[in-house]
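Researcher: Here's the sequence for the chain we discussed earlier.
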Amino acid sequence: MEKEKIVHELNRLIGNEKVLGSDMQITLYEYDAYLLRAKPDCIVLPTTTEDVSKVVKFAHDNGIRVVARGAGTNLTGGSVCLHGGIAIVTTKMNQILDLDIENQRIVVQPGLITLNLKNFLARHGYLYQPDPASEKSSTLGGNVGENAGGPHCLKYGVTSNHVLGGELVLFDGEVIQFGGKALDNPGYDLSGVLSGSEGTLGIMTKLVLRIVPKAEAVKTMMCIFNTIKDGSDTVSAIIADGMIPATLEMMDNLTIKAVEEAYNAGLPKDAAALLIIELDGLKDGMERLAEHIQNICKKHNVREIRVAKDEAERAKIWAARKGAFGAVGRLRPNYLVNDGTVPRTKLPETLDKVIKIGQKYNLPIANVFHAGDGNLHPLVLFDERDKDELGRVHKAATEIMQACADMGGTISGEHGIGVEKLHGMSFIFSAKDMAAMNRVKAAFDPANRYNPGKLLPELQKTA
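Model: Thanks. This is the structure I predict for it:
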């Protein structure tokens, strides 16, 4: 169907104020936070489940592909319309529908910004635990689609551990409910299947999320090391001692220098590694636990330990960590973020391999990682205007993925597969494994209209 006719029919279905189709508007939605660009035929901005259902049914009836999109923070090209079609942008579906404090549940629309939910809950003394670094701009629907993590996933798990149910628009526009507020729902765990599915199975229009009361006490420490190995060994020792802090986050020297130059956060620019340790829980015993962890740090050659004295100092520490991606953007015009995951005891060895890969391809690599669960974030710095350098970046990213797989890890901890990592799926899955996943995709989306060319390599060939 011609683009003009698609726009005309969508205007009729949901109203022209919800449909965008000019060349300028389409250009604004042709990219996300990855390196890929591809234009949709048009964009719709639904506000209700009914809007989404009508658009999907229209697309199904006319053989048009659809891609669900939130704020466009995706780091692997997952929200780019590879084959044109309709971009269904959920950012106007941003309402809190039901706050159920008694049952510790909240029902929201998928376009709600993650931090907006957190700020709302804070007024009631509650938390939504997943905290991706992009929480200031990323949407909850996108977090579910990528199964996002964040610093607190060490203790509290990734997004899928907090999604209990919701509402889903199927390939033909039909709307179904899955899961719910109650635990242990019978039948297939569709919440689990949909979390991390990257918009390839359906479009979620409501989410039932788990919330928890704020902890009585929080203790945040910044620990400075002269070697990455000492910092990594400290992480392993803390976990081996039977303790699970809320967070164990690390930055390497290149990242520390970038953050300090960007934010003047008081970080030591000569340090090899900076480890952020946060404890939360009951007030009774918190000081004793913090002292015990500090003793473990001292046994592993910590140079200095800084303990946040109040909420302002804690916020300053976290601003440094969560601003790391933005800070390294000062070093080169572009960066590619990898996010392989390895067993935490393999962190020093893996980081050494990452450094050598950077040297091999003459590319600076800054490292930020969720050390507690072995989730690396090597940021490969480059200038996309240099085509030779861009080619080296893709080769380096592939070798980093392979290194993580060789260490007994995996190729993505929270950013998803999208387009970037399709070729890496064979590093961790056999052909039979992927064929089984393809059958799940076909059951939900038999004509391959939902976000084709993402997540599963075999489907890319037929999209």
